[in-house]
Design brief:
The chain is an alpha/beta fold. The chain is 30% helix and 27% strand.
């Protein structure tokens, strides 16, 4: 029906897969819905370390977007966004004509923060985008031999989990460079101590206090410190905003992410929403998948409300949230509300949460 209005979902992130599911269960009357994404298989970041460790098959951590959109009655446009013309209501794409929209939602995630370190973009393997990471990670796994050195750069949750996974899976030695902020900055001190002991138990060398100054082929050079030889360098530092966001004319925060209000609306635009890592709320949140997952139902409700001429409701983030870290050996660490816990039951809990999340979209 050509007279129907158009809701365009840009990006196949964690929030948008929930929007798809909800609109599939209860279609939006008078509207057609499309998804524009470059990823045919949308990865779930929470299971990535488990894939690297060999605990999951890659398919278990991937959402089949053609299958999901088909079940939900949504048109799928497999292409890369190159820009947004907010005034004209158009999204430009690499492989076809611009797409017109009446209501737009953006959940394109973030890009690896490699530009600040010379050589990182050329010689390191970033964790994101995950669909590009997995094939290269398989080649690293296949080529790993005793005596080789793998360096993981980034002391946050992702870097810690990936270092554990590589150490458990591969015969090569692993070094985690946690940088000036140290291992798992922002986590409780007790958990950080447990994490350091877990790394030592896996044989992972931990470097703290010095950031990586530059990357060269086969080498990671620390600031004022030694050179670390590396057959592979995994880049797991903080997220950066995609460069094309600067061309949209939409309001951005100092780091380049889209500024949104408490209802997830782009600042100054009543028909543009954003969620997940690409969005920056009035009170900034960590770039963690848990927030994108929790924003999904609120985003779906607000898109429906605006489409029906109703008032959107605010998203209220959790003040404290459950954080679970895989040790890649059937155990995990966790923290919430100041409590710290660990063991096999924590891995069971993480595994159950992750499988339940994926089960909503894979079947």
């Amino acid at each position: 029906m050509p007279d129907r209005r158009h809701l365009l979902l840009l990006g196949g992130g964690h929030a948008h897969v929930e929007v798809l599911r909800q609109f599939g269960q209860r279609p939006l009357p008078g509207w057609r819905v499309s998804l524009l994404t470059r990823e045919e298989m949308s990865p779930y970041s929470g299971m990535l370390p488990g894939v690297i460790a060999g605990l999951y098959q890659p398919a278990q951590a991937l959402i089949d977007m053609p299958a999901l959109t088909a079940r939900c009655g949504v048109e799928l446009l497999l292409d890369r966004c190159t820009g947004i013309d907010a005034r004209a209501g158009l999204v430009r794409r690499a492989g076809g004509a611009a797409v017109a929209w009446d209501l737009l939602s953006i959940d394109t995630g973030a890009t690896p923060d490699t530009n600040r370190t010379p050589g990182a973009a050329e010689h390191a393997l970033p964790l994101k985008p995950i669909d590009a990471l997995l094939p290269r990670m398989e080649s690293i796994t296949a080529a790993a031999r005793p005596g080789q050195h793998i360096v993981v750069v980034g002391g946050g949750a992702a870097g810690f989990e990936v270092a554990c996974a590589l150490a458990v899976r591969l015969p090569a030695s692993v070094t985690l460079v946690a940088g000036a902020s140290g291992l798992l900055a922002g986590f409780p001190a007790r958990l950080r101590r447990h994490a350091a002991r877990a790394l030592a138990g896996h044989g992972v060398a931990l470097s703290e206090g010095r950031n990586v100054a530059r990357i060269a082929p086969g080498e990671a050079h620390l600031e004022g410190g030694p050179m670390l030889p590396a057959s592979a360098i995994i880049w797991a530092t903080g997220a950066a905003a995609a460069p094309w966001l600067a061309e949209t004319g939409l309001a951005r925060d100092p780091r380049g992410f889209l500024r949104v209000d408490s209802c997830l609306r782009a600042e100054g635009h009543s028909t543009i929403f954003a969620a997940g890592d690409v969005a920056s709320l009035p009170e900034p949140l960590p770039k963690a998948g848990v927030f994108a997952v929790r924003q999904g139902p609120v985003l779906a409700a607000n898109l429906r409300a605006v489409a029906m001429g109703e008032t959107p409701q605010p998203y209220v983030p959790q003040r404290d949230y459950l954080r679970l870290l895989s040790l890649a050996d059937g155990r995990a660490l966790g923290t919430r509300n100041g409590l710290v816990f660990g063991g096999r039951w924590v891995w069971w809990l993480k595994d159950r949460i992750d499988r339940r999340f994926m089960g909503r979209y894979q079947h």
